[in-house]
Amino acid sequence: MDSITTLRIAATLASFATFIGILVWAWSRRNAKAFEEAARLPFEEDPS
Questions:
Q1: Of the candidates 48, 20, 26, which has an alpha carbon nearest to the alpha carbon of residue 38?
Q2: How far from chain centre, in Å, is Cα 21?
Q3: How far apart are the C-alpha atoms of 36 and 13, rounded to whole Å?
Q4: Per residue in 1-48, pLDDT tens?
């Protein structure tokens, strides 16, 4: 294999692992409360 092909494979795998990590972080129950609070912020702020 060419070294550029190996580098492309490594970059693809690293990107996929990062994507999976972000998915796990976003869907974790530990962050659910913070995300719910952040989702309500636009409706709770004073418009003045």
A1: 26
A2: 7
A3: 32
A4: 799 999 999 999 999 999 999 999 999 989 889 999 999 988 887 766
**Which residues lie closer than 8 Å to 1 by C-beta, 6 or more apart?**
none
Tokens for 45? 């702020």
Instruction: Say which residue the tokens 């990062």 belong to.
Output: 18
At 42, which amino acid appears?
Answer: P
Alpha helices in 1-48 (DSSP H): 3-27, 32-44
Given a contact cutoff of 8 angstroms between Cβ atoms, the answer to whether 25 and 31 are in contact is: yes
Q: Which two tokens stand for residue 12?
A: 């693809």
Rounded to the nearest 5 degrees, what angle is found at the Cα of 37, between the Cα atoms of 24 and 21? 10
